[in-house]
């Protein structure tokens, strides 16, 4: 939950900072969606955690009620040793098959995202969304910064700190437990490519000195997140232990 709280704070400050510093349209549209998605995720966490705790409590009480003095304390498991090795071999084969299938699904998801993104850009370009007639990027002749831009830069740096701090607890947890169990590798694959293209879009929108200075904190947050995602990728490889990467983050 704390991870999501840090994220929503980062996305909110990112959104306000992008608006105040007149960044590229994508730098405003994306955090707007992220703030909405973060709030939905937080509400889901609160709802499902509450519901699951309630169910677990009811289940525990029902289980205790069924226990009696006549219930056997030990259960016979005849032939356990004889069946252990074939079961392990079958489990290994099944895991390898699921891993290959999962990686194929992850790659297909990435390709689908790229196709949709390119199509969206093409449609918006044809619709004139990228025309520079009403360009609001800072003029190179205007060297001064308004109070709104200063506030935007401040929020941008705060956002970068939130983004950079959000993944550190997860990286440390993975290191301590030597496991990435429960994490969705597709999530980090999408995050890495998303931050990469986000940074490229910021730089491509304008190369004016003042605009790039305004975009600097947002680029720092994006590049820093890419580095942390790469660290998590390495941890996936080091700590996988033959376990398949999950399709859905838990």
From TrEMBL:
Transmembrane annotation, as ranges: 27-48, 107-127, 147-165, 185-205, 211-234
Sequence ranges of Basic and acidic residues compositional bias: 60-94
GO cellular component, one term: membrane
SMART domains recorded: CTNS
Ranges where the record places region Disordered: 59-100
Membrane topology note: Multi-pass membrane protein
Keyword list, A-Z: Membrane, Transmembrane, Transmembrane helix
Localization in the cell: Membrane
Keyword Transmembrane: yes
Gene3D superfamilies (UniProt xref): 1.20.1280.290
Transmembrane helix listed as a keyword: yes
InterPro entries: LAAT-1, PQ-loop_rpt
Principal subcellular localisation of the protein: membrane
PANTHER family: SEVEN TRANSMEMBRANE PROTEIN 1, SEVEN TRANSMEMBRANE PROTEIN 1-RELATED
Protein name: Vacuolar membrane PQ loop repeat protein
